[in-house]
Amino acid sequence: MRINELLESDQALPPKVAEAFMAVADEQRGDPEMAMLRVQHAYKGGVLSPVVEHVGDLLHRMTEHADVGMWLEDIIEEKVKRGLSYLTHGYGFEREMEENIRANNADREKLDRLLQEYANEHKKLPVYNVAHWYARDAAIAVGEQDWNRAIQALRALKNMLDSGRYRKYVSSYTLDKQGNLQEYRP
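Predicted structure:
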């Protein structure tokens, strides 16, 4: 197995790799995005809406401009910070979410079903490196209402950003012996 060592930020990805990364961005804007909108509509506002939006958008932003080596570090950092801010707020994310559900007369069973659909749609997205994996896992964890796992995934991304190595992580990939791009598996 040939592994492309973590790329420098100014180094272009091979066209086939860039195309695969950008295909992930396009896929995320399809069914996962529609699932997010259904959650927001059913939830009717509150702390969950920005979390499903910002966390679900991470993988899209990481991959949408792969052809020109733009990894949108500032946008990713802002979305990670927002997600962590909501999920770790001292009042308690789950407590506030439950209060929002009651205040908005949202159908809890329907919301649970829609959140699981959100998770399932994100599970279908391919990932090609550890940064992609954490972004997707954070969205899946939000959909599965596993707040601690979502926080862990977002913190892993924050650590990549804080270390100054985000661009290297987000642009890395592995090719097999035939030169085919391999999905990342931890």
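Summary: The beta strands are 2-4, 173-175, 181-182.
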